[in-house]
Amino acid sequence: MNNPNTALQPDSVWSPLFQQRAFRALMTAFSFPGRRQPLPPCVDAKGPACIAAVLCDNEVTLADPDHLIQPDDIRRLGIGEASVENAGFIIADGSRAPSFEPALGSLAEPEQGATLIIRVASLDGTTAFPLTLRGPGIEGTQSLGLRGLHDGWLAERARWNRNFPMGVDLILVDDTQVVALPRTTQISGGGN
Amino acid sequence: MNPNYQLTDSQDSYGFGFLDEFAKREIRRVILKAISIPGYQTPYASREMPMGRGFGTGGLQLTLSMIGPEDTLKVIDQGSDDSVNAVNLRKFAELTCPDVSTTESTTEATLIQTRHRVPEIALREDQVLNLQVPYPDPLVIVEPSEAKRKIMHGEGDYARLLTKLYEDLVKFDEITISHRYPTRINGHYVIDPSPIPRYDVPKLHQSQALLLFGAGREKKIYAVPPYTNAEPLVFDDVPFRTENFYNADGKRRACNRCGSTNSFLDELNLEDGSKAWQCSDTDFCNRQLARTDAGEVTQ
Ligand SMILES: [Zn+2]
């Protein structure tokens, strides 16, 4: 049910304090797209599972087509599982091109557009894949280097987000850090 | 809210921040969507709070969903940390969030909850402003149906709202809205920026800090992210004007306490029937006063 246990130490992903701190990292990440934010340390989860523990419970649906979350954690989250096309949250492996159509929301309810939690190899400022970002939350431009994101994601993301306010919001995550790319962020550069 | 509010025994067992973890998680999800869709009134399931709606429950729920032991909280009402409302909300936070520090200093705060004002001192990237909102939808005055308003917002269609403003313009030669000035965010959604004066609207534009708006009764949360355009709705030939505080001689009034001529002033009615003007932002006023006093000492 993802009912955080106050008896747990804050280094557990299921403790309220971890979830509060990790949420603040996420809120800062969404406020400043493209800037890496460290997740607070925790002993019992990594990357995508940390994000799911902060944001997901029985009130939302989640699809994990690449099986990035342990079955025990899925049970603990108590989430409603859904097809990728209908899920509010989708967890995916960034090294493979996406092969699904996420929910984009509607003109009246754009918040129904999915949140994609994408695991990448590393968000550590490598220049192998430099992207230039513009949009709300960015003063001028922001550059982002990362490893392990298939080019297909950027092309598909651009297509999913072509009709604002509909679209999807991306959370890129490696083992310990997070970068948010809300639907308003314009991306240029990269592999092509 | 009862000024001597005490948590009942059963509420005492509530976790940090009063709200249960499911309520916090829902608000957290909604905040991230609100930031992703700047200016969009994102619906959420507002929880019952131990005070009437209209006492800042929307802003309080934002604050309680994000606050942690590392935070320093400032609560202001019409610019003042000392008003009954601000004191009560601050006490409630102190009661339900042990370990959180509170402050009256704008620069020391990490979270600022406010009603009716944006602080005079420009906010930083590491600060968050949570504004209390009574009426979130600027289209209510032209369209009674929420379903239709949602479509108009989605299309960025504000023609009828502009017509309404234009009528004002024809009648009074300027747009007379003093508070809640409709403001377009990132070139799309128009928001009700809450009952802040026109004077504060330019502070929403390209702010370094995240600005969040919580409407508890209407169950909506919306955001102006940092470094985002926030433009008051205007017509090409009529510039947006803020309150200028000129006296009859066209001279800018000064605060009669600190002497500042670059702050938003409250008009006070003195006992002898005369009027005086004073900074509405008490922290700003105290700072100016301290600076003046220090200056006098060293001279
Ligand atoms: Zn003053």
TrEMBL record, chain A:
GO terms for biological process: organic phosphonate metabolic process. Keywords: Lyase. The keyword Lyase applies. GO terms for molecular function: lyase activity. InterPro entries: PhnH-like_sp, Phosphonate_metab_PhnH. The gene is phnH. The keyword Hydrolase does not apply. This is Phosphonate C-P lyase system protein PhnH. It comes from the Bacteria. It holds the Pfam family PhnH.
TrEMBL record, chain B:
The keyword Plastid does not apply. Keywords: 4Fe-4S, Iron, Iron-sulfur, Lyase, Metal-binding, S-adenosyl-L-methionine. Its EC number is 4.7.1.1. The keyword 4Fe-4S applies. GO terms for biological process: organic phosphonate catabolic process. It catalyses: alpha-D-ribose 1-methylphosphonate 5-phosphate + AH2 + S-adenosyl-L-methionine = alpha-D-ribose 1,2-cyclic phosphate 5-phosphate + methane + 5'-deoxyadenosine + L-methionine + A + H(+). GO terms for molecular function: 4 iron, 4 sulfur cluster binding; alpha-D-ribose 1-methylphosphonate 5-phosphate C-P-lyase activity; metal ion binding. Catalyzes the breakage of the C-P bond in alpha-D-ribose 1-methylphosphonate 5-phosphate (PRPn) forming alpha-D-ribose. This is Alpha-D-ribose 1-methylphosphonate 5-phosphate C-P lyase. It comes from Marinobacter maroccanus.
